[in-house]
Amino acid sequence: MAWAAVDPDGPYLGIGCAKSENQLCLEIPGCNQSKKDEIWRVPLSWPAYVSFRTTWQHQPIDLHPQLLSWAAERWAEVTERMAMRAAMDAMDPEVLTALVSLELVGGPQLDPLQRASAEWLIRWRRCILGDYMGKPGKTPPAIRSLQLLARSGEGLPALVIAPNNSLIAWARKLKTWAPELTVQLITGTATARRTALLADADVYLIGWENARLHTRLAAYQGQRFVCCPDEDGVHPPFKGVDPKITVNRCEVHPKELNTHPDGRARRWATVIADECHRMKDPKSKQSRAVQWLAHHAENFWALTGTLTADTVGDLWPVLHAIDPKAWPARSRYLDLWAVLANDWYGREYLDLRPENAAAFHDAVDPCFRRVIAEGITPGRGEPEFIYPELVPAQARAYREIQRDMLADLDGQTLVPDNDGVKFNRLVQLASSMVELADGEDKYGFTRQDVRLKLPSNKAEALVDFLGDQEGQWIVSCYAPDLMDLCARKLDEAKIVHTRIVGGMGPVRADEAAQLFQNSPEVRVIFVNSAGAESIDLYAACGVIFLQPYPSHIMTTQIIGRADRRGQTRLVRVVYMISPGTVDSRLFELSCEKDERHQSVTRDAEMMRWMITEGELAGT
Which CATH class is domain 458-601? Predict the structure, then answer.
């Protein structure tokens, strides 16, 4: 009979089995067979143990007493984690007293839910805080936790990796919540960022886009490093040596986030990854940079309100950053926990494997805390829909492209090159009329550029809606041309507006957010993906989506700018859907992705559990 035991030579789970059972061991992430003794070994961790029991659930195996004893100890820890991840206040009296002692008279104070989140970070050190966006709020608990660790000589220096547009907001909140901590913003040019990293501070703030430029990267199977000549042969097989590659461009050379100017290794006591769902692509340099920093820090706090962007596979890069030994191999992670499924339209995606879903939650749920606090803000109303009909010119061009793959536009012929381009043209025409212009590709050859122009059914509908409604509104779309057209129509109607878009920089973006927050006469703030994260816009009474985002994460993040702490009204969510167009399918796609996200977070189940426990506690 096969057996499993704790390897006495190291923290490994050892498995001995017949050759016919080797496939079961291969299904365990990180499990490999030693050629010396033919024993299968995997680093001993709770996720590895859950994976092992899942793959061997239908096969007899002898579990040694030491392994069972270890599993019992870990189960006790898991039970503690599960109690804390849904706690409504700090459970440890000492932690509660310490958190309360940090609150300044007349200053901001954590509410009970936030104290529970702070205790979660302090207790487990390497974990995910996935509380709902703005409710109860993730930044204040993270700052307070850092402040409490600093009082005991831990936690500093700290590195906060956040969206560029929220760096100033982070600095403002640090000054408010922990004024004794010195803060250094790492922004501007490469030289300015390097100079900022030389300054002494307790907390350093850097944008996601810049983090990878100042640290070496973690390895990912099949991805080659770009190496300078000094690193030739040091990191096989990930070689890509080029004599022209400088140290600053080398991906394995230590940089400013890894070393001090005198050559000493730089150790971050705490790394905070705000909006950590940005790590969803494990191959990206951005993800691998943050993983390297996380692997070499004592504390790693991953903050996000949307744990998965599209599929269950999006969570692996964050889990790997938290514990690379417990979550070692993405391919086996997907094989064990995910299954390829098809939606109504035949699109493929990774869904949670039904037969292993319970075991998946046993392994993953202890890693993150997520509380749905419906009482913190009035919440969101039921979605509202506006169906602006296409103007005649739009409708004619839309039908011609849909039917014949070409359209006549004022004597010019619009011909999509393929189905992908055709879909993009239909998306454009669902919001506005288009025009053709001559452009050039990167080789200097003439190409046909397609731009939006008036008339626009969405721009007209927006002006009409704002004329009938009061209050301030967040208006979102992903086409910059459509935003410009709507701005022109608002100017004609004398409706004051501002915007947060890509390329503005953190200072200008923060100025736009503060202008909207503090000036009721500013009726509209336009946002795209650049304004979808870590920005407080609770002055808005609602959100208007001119174009339905096919991304669940983008839709949820943008709504979360208004539906957050400080909001006093029920947030209205309005979708503009051009009837009979691709808008409907894009909206459906977002809904499907929301269902997949819920399969991981299980918000509804958690809310029912909390309500039931509350009823039982009150009887």
Answer: alpha beta
